[in-house]
Amino acid sequence: MWSRLRTRMIVVFLISLAAMLVGGSIGEQLTFREKRYYYYPEEEEMTALFLSRYAREMTQIRAAKRNERLNSLEQTGRMRLRVLDQEGNPLYRSVHASKRRENIHTLLFQMKRQSDDLNTSGGVRNLTFVYPFYLDQQPVYLVADWIGSGKPVDQGNPLMSFCSAILSFWLVFHLLTKGKLRQIAAMSRGVREIAQGRWETRVPETGDDELGILGRHINEMARKLKESREKEKRLDAQRNELITSISHDLRTPLTSIIGYLLWMRDHPDMSEAEVRRYAGIGLSKAQSMKRLIEDLFDYAKWTHHQAPIRKTRLFFNRLIEQLAEETIPLAEREQMSIRLDLCEDPLELDGDPDLLVRMLENVFHNALHHGSRPGEIVVSTAREGDTAVLKVTNMADPLPKERLSRLFDLFVTGEQSRLRGSGVGLAIVRMIAEMHGGNVTATQDRGMLMIRFRLPLLHQ
């Protein structure tokens, strides 16, 4: 997959490269100075390209036209042309050519010497070239005086051009990458602060390229680390509370049992009725301890996912009806009544019957133990989309908001003293609901406490 950051870097590099070329050109323009260069042909070039062709033309035209032709060649070729006989006398010439008699040997010697030292930057120089040929069956010489043609050329300082190009590249590259480099530096500082334990630190998430995605991932990591740390603190607090609560809940009935046993030992003359009464109280306390230990064992087992869930197809309303009928005798002893308000839909679930019964038992017993007496427990169900909703409502003492929000935590009960409950039952209720993909919440309005379950229905 083509990287957005790579694409951006390529674009930045190309822009910087263009700026370097422009900057180098500007630097060269600022240091321009004019210099003239001159072109001088060599002997072979002049005789092969020009004089041989001119001589051939002279042999092909009439004598009356030869001066006129030389004049036209002088204008186009920037040369002064003349035809000399063997004595050096001019036979034909262009308008600016010399009229004097010339020494052929001197002209040949001059042409030989000038060909050994040609320079294009030495200023204007006049060169002489001699080309022998036959004209009208007589040996003659075509002589051409070449006047150097200067051409102005602007030349800059290469060092200034190079420095200007490098500076332009650096400035443009710096300006275009400054934002990303600042973002990388901010991310580096943020990661360092997160590593030092400041989980609330956030790094910039600017852009939709890889750096922006990396920033979002770092912030998500910091958020999860913060949540993990807070969860760890809560677990530490719950662990300390667990130790204190277990010590309290086990020591209280155990103290009572020891007290009754010591009383029975120290009073051997007790009547049979007293012995049965004290033994019954001790047995009740021992059963409470056993139930608490079983609850703790189940909670620990389900917390670490060691207990398998044996799900099967069941009807939630029928399960509620059966359990409510079994709870009615206990409710009557507690001066409570149970009223069912179930929907017509049987609410088919895919769940573990044993676990769901355990969940409902704990909720009903919590309502019986902590509800106002005399009172009524209203159990209602409804279907909301693909979810089964169960509400268990009863009148109870008002609960503080903080305790109500933590009602399903371990060792939290509706009563401050916890004399009427261990605080494990409702924690098991929430765990069973979550094991079935649902949830449970508690609300209270004008003393009416409502525990609300939401469980997913079986898909047809």
Automatic annotation (TrEMBL):
<protein>
    <recommendedName>
        <fullName>histidine kinase</fullName>
        <ecNumber>2.7.13.3</ecNumber>
    </recommendedName>
</protein>
<dbReference type="InterPro" id="IPR003594">
    <property type="entry name" value="HATPase_dom"/>
</dbReference>
<dbReference type="InterPro" id="IPR003660">
    <property type="entry name" value="HAMP_dom"/>
</dbReference>
<dbReference type="InterPro" id="IPR003661">
    <property type="entry name" value="HisK_dim/P_dom"/>
</dbReference>
<dbReference type="GO" id="GO:0016301">
    <property type="term" value="F:kinase activity"/>
</dbReference>
<keyword id="KW-0418">Kinase</keyword>
<keyword id="KW-1003">Cell membrane</keyword>
<dbReference type="Pfam" id="PF00512">
    <property type="entry name" value="HisKA"/>
</dbReference>
<dbReference type="Pfam" id="PF00672">
    <property type="entry name" value="HAMP"/>
</dbReference>
<keyword id="KW-0902">Two-component regulatory system</keyword>
<feature type="domain" description="Histidine kinase">
    <location>
        <begin position="245"/>
        <end position="459"/>
    </location>
</feature>
<dbReference type="InterPro" id="IPR005467">
    <property type="entry name" value="His_kinase_dom"/>
</dbReference>
<keyword id="KW-1133">Transmembrane helix</keyword>
<feature type="domain" description="HAMP">
    <location>
        <begin position="178"/>
        <end position="230"/>
    </location>
</feature>
<keyword id="KW-0547">Nucleotide-binding</keyword>
<keyword id="KW-0808">Transferase</keyword>
<keyword id="KW-0597">Phosphoprotein</keyword>
<dbReference type="InterPro" id="IPR004358">
    <property type="entry name" value="Sig_transdc_His_kin-like_C"/>
</dbReference>
<keyword id="KW-0067">ATP-binding</keyword>
<keyword id="KW-0812">Transmembrane</keyword>
<dbReference type="InterPro" id="IPR036890">
    <property type="entry name" value="HATPase_C_sf"/>
</dbReference>
<dbReference type="InterPro" id="IPR036097">
    <property type="entry name" value="HisK_dim/P_sf"/>
</dbReference>
<dbReference type="Pfam" id="PF02518">
    <property type="entry name" value="HATPase_c"/>
</dbReference>
<dbReference type="InterPro" id="IPR050398">
    <property type="entry name" value="HssS/ArlS-like"/>
</dbReference>
<keyword id="KW-0472">Membrane</keyword>
